[in-house]
Amino acid sequence: MDPKIKIRGVNFFYHKHQVLKNINMDFPERQITAIIGPSGCGKSTLLRALNRMNDIVSGARLEGAVLLDNENIYSPNLDVVNLRKRVGMVFQQPNPFPKSIFDNVAFGPRMLGTTAQSRLDEVVEKSLRQAALWDEVKDNLHKSGLALSGGQQQRLCIARVLAIEPEVILMDEPCSALDPVSTMRIEELMQELKQNYTIAIVTHNMQQAARASDWTGFLLTGDLVEYGRTGEIFSRPRDKRTEDYITGRFG
Amino acid sequence: MLKFTSRSTQKVAFSLLWTAGIITLLILLLIIGYIIIRGLPGFSWDFLFTPPAGGLAGDGGISSTIVTTLYLVGLTLLILVPVGIGAAIYLVEYAPDNRLTRFIRYGVQTLAGVPSILFGLFGFALFVTVLHFRFSILSGALTLACLLLPVLITATEEALKTVPRSYRAGAMALGATKWQSITHVILPAALPGIATGVILCAGRALGETACLYVTMGGSAAMPDSLLSGGRSLALHVFYLATETNAIDKAMATAAVLIVIIVGLNALTNFISRRFQKRMSGGV
């Protein structure tokens, strides 16, 4: 099957500093693809290139193409707002809005023009169930999203993304601010979600990449050193640098 | 020999800071207490509801000046709030960081330091003379709006800047347009801070005299339109104190004014405390 997202010959610059160097990488449909690498290697930048969140940074410039269903998302006539509805994002720090749990999840659908209360009720319940948060919050939907624990907040943010019914979910180190139990819950959740969604995750935690992903790309100072099936990358890395990184010699 | 250990230094520093705090509090209580005690004998319900008689004796009450004050503050906010908040949203959310916007910011900061009588002279030249609004509540309100614009812009900018960047990124990543993220996420989160700024401006408008002296005239009559001249409460205090012998009436009027201002400040505190509570999730 043709990959959902294909990165082709991407160079990325902040002003004169080159962050990504000639990246070619695929994100197969309904699979989890992990991007690993040491701090500052450009992995978050690569992830943010997939929904054009780098656009807001002044001095950012991208060359090459990112194809979503074979359509270049950097072509000048593409609607960025519509792109971000198709490619949702979960951030490193849980960032619920200072609104109720209900209003957080209903935010996306409301921005898309859904106003009927019954429809919103439906979407909110479905999204919270998918994010495995419904049972914990169903009696407190009007409590502030900020009053939840860190792990719950992150699942709320995942529910908020699911409510806009995206095709791809980007996760930028979604567990780095969470405790081990919450981390495990998010990883289980990712396995559920990959039935319906294409997932790309950035992580500095190699065990997490090995456990949770199907494909892995190893990024080092802007170069994609190695890309392949997660099992192979971790058991038989072809490149010496990959082997050194996953065995903990640096990073 | 006396030796200063770090602990005794700490004790000395603490007591000095404590004294500074107490002195501030004492001065505040002294002013409020003095005015209220001196004002009380001249105060009665009649005083609130009868118009000033004018003249050297300073007879009568303050009803028309209360009405004028309400008109003046209301109209000032009506002009000030949309312009000030709009400008702040532009500066924080839209303006690129270039020479023009840096110049605007510099201009705003400079305006904030200009004495209010200069705004009064400007208002007199433009609103009273050129635009023929005469000595009126309208001229006074327009002048006050100019005077307070930098205050409100700065307060609103600060409120918008306290909204975490992660909210903006979150809204954008959910497919919200910039305008949607401003109206649905950023403004609601900043609203208590903005409200505090607006109330602060209302307080300043209540207390301002110099710039109104030259734009509103000093008519003690009940205003019948926004083009009537008039006196706000603060201006009335000024007239009573300088042009009549009725110092007790001046004190009573000042007492009414100070009660209103203390009330407004309490409201500001209440709102900002709720703001902090909401930001930390304890709704």
UniProtKB/TrEMBL annotation, chain A:
Q: Which GO molecular function terms does the record list? A: ATP binding; ATP hydrolysis activity; phosphate transmembrane transporter activity
Primary role: Part of the ABC transporter complex PstSACB involved in phosphate import. Responsible for energy coupling to the transport system.
Q: Where in the cell is it found?
A: Cell inner membrane
Q: Does the keyword ATP-binding apply?
A: yes
What keywords are annotated for this sequence in UniProt? ATP-binding, Cell membrane, Membrane, Nucleotide-binding, Phosphate transport, Translocase, Transport
- Name the major location: membrane
- Gene3D superfamilies linked to this entry: P-loop containing nucleotide triphosphate hydrolases
Q: What is this protein called?
A: Phosphate ABC transporter ATP-binding protein
Domain ABC transporter residues, every copy: 5-246
Q: How does it sit in the membrane?
A: Peripheral membrane protein
One GO cellular component from the entry? plasma membrane
Q: Which organism is it from?
A: Dehalococcoides mccartyi
One Gene Ontology term of the biological-process aspect is: phosphate ion transmembrane transport
Automatic annotation (TrEMBL), chain B:
Molecular function in Gene Ontology: phosphate transmembrane transporter activity
Q: Where in the cell is it found?
A: Cell membrane
Extract the CDD domains matched here. Answer: TM_PBP2 (cd06261)
Where are its TM segments located? 12-37, 70-91, 103-127, 133-155, 185-206, 250-271
Q: Which GO terms describe its biological process?
A: phosphate ion transmembrane transport
The UniProt entry, under Gene3D superfamilies, shows: MetI-like
Q: Which UniProt keywords apply?
A: Cell membrane, Membrane, Transmembrane, Transmembrane helix, Transport
Membrane-protein topology: Multi-pass membrane protein
Q: Which residues form the ABC transmembrane type-1 domain?
A: 66-268
Could you state one GO cellular component term attached to this entry?
A: plasma membrane
Domain of life according to the entry: Bacteria
- Which family is this protein grouped under? Belongs to the binding-protein-dependent transport system permease family. CysTW subfamily.
The record, for NCBIfam families, names: 3a0107s02c (TIGR00974)
Q: What is the designated name of this protein?
A: Phosphate transport system permease protein PstA
